[in-house]
Design a protein that fits this description.
about 350 residues; alpha/beta; Isopropylmalate Dehydrogenase; 15 helices; globular; disordered N terminus
């Protein structure tokens, strides 16, 4: 075992989560720490993690194994994990941040458990009722920020308003866009389109001039890049995210199949365009992006895809470390708290 360095940042990694557990989370975390020169805490069953470490190159990496005797399983309810699995790897990782031993958490496991443990152990930002998962999706122009993409499947209208407020702060501080446009995902662009939740949220957004709300947007706008931020509940957002992942994979396979069955001239053309196809694959590959930040918490949490490979975990851990170095959470918290009118408005709506 190599002791974790005292220098910040220190990232706690829930290595028991995800479809592949320590076999990908451990090497991914070690690689991120090696490239970024920071420390990682590998949170999980010490015997399982220890066996995995024997197969990894950990030389020169600042790491420490933190034992957790339980694992949050995908089929379990977040509330049950909170009550019955106090020593689960995700709870232990969140407590490490709460206690100051780490500055961020990365988990490729149960997104609901990550949200619940982050909220009840780390605490929420002032004025925020629920944390939300944000995804930055590729578009024809600049990347589009979408949230929530899975943390909250049942929402109130004021939750969507708070999601928009968090996304506005995130886009300004992380993506350096001074006046990002915000759209509400609906079945039509016209005011009055959508279900009750969308209609009520629309009414809330249009009452304030402190964010650049442009009204309803449709699914096609996600990848056109016409709007910077798209707000929706976690049920819809997760469907959008999984659709995007599935479509990109299917398109790549269809293109390969068509090229195999094409003429000689077309195959020569495909060889000439191989670089473009390679760039397209990286453009839509979730592993390139690492994970989705969970906004609204008093601590950094990055949730990875359940099928994450070592590359995805490494990129997610690197993202968490970058957020710590740039004081992203502090800047987000300051931006949200400083907007007194929006905070008063949010509280008034709830009452």
């Amino acid at each position: 075992m190599s002791p974790a360095s005292c220098a910040a940042p220190v990232i706690a990694v829930d290595v028991m989560g995800g479809d592949f557990g320590p076999s990908v989370a451990v090497p991914g975390a070690l690689e991120a720490a090696r490239k970024g020169s920071f420390s990682v805490l590998l949170v999980g069953d010490k015997d399982v993690v220890g066996n995995t470490l024997k197969e990894c190159n950990a030389e020169g990496v600042a790491y420490e194994v933190v034992h957790a005797s339980q694992t949050a399983l995908m089929g379990e309810k977040p509330s049950d994990i909170l009550r019955r699995k106090k020593d689960s790897s995700i709870q232990v990782a969140c407590r490490l941040v709460k206690d100051g031993a780490a500055q961020g958490v990365v988990s490729p496991g149960h997104s609901g458990a990550s949200a619940a443990c982050g909220m009840f152990i780390m605490g929420r930002m002032t004025g925020i009722d629920r944390p939300a998962l944000v995804s930055v999706l590729p578009s024809e122009k600049q990347p589009t920020v979408v949230l929530d993409v899975g943390a909250n499947v049942d929402c109130k209208a004021y939750h969507l308003f708070q999601f928009g407020l968090m996304a506005d702060a995130f886009t300004k501080t992380v993506l350096s866009r001074p006046n990002p446009s915000i759209g509400l995902l609906s079945i039509g662009e016209e005011e009055g389109k959508g279900n009750t939740l969308v209609k009520e949220a629309y009414d809330i957004f249009k009452l304030t001039n402190n964010v650049n709300f442009v009204g309803n947007v449709e699914g096609k706008d996600i990848f056109s890049g016409e709007v910077d931020i798209i707000v929706c509940d976690g049920f819809v957002g997760n469907v959008v995210l999984k659709l995007a992942e599935g479509l990109s994979g299917s398109l790549s396979r269809i293109l390969k199949r068509e090229l195999l069955n094409s003429t000689v001239a077309a195959k020569i053309g495909s060889l000439l365009s191989k670089g473009a196809f390679s760039r397209f694959s990286r453009f839509v590959d979730y592993a390139e992006y690492g994970g989705a930040p969970l906004l609204g918490l008093q601590g950094i949490v990055i949730v990875c895809h359940g099928r994450s490979n070592a590359k995805a975990v490494s990129n997610a851990v690197g993202m968490a470390a970058a957020f710590v170095k740039k004081k992203t959470n502090e800047r987000l918290n300051a931006n949200i708290c400083a907007n007194e009118e929006l905070n008063r408005f949010s509280k008034a709506v709830k009452t």
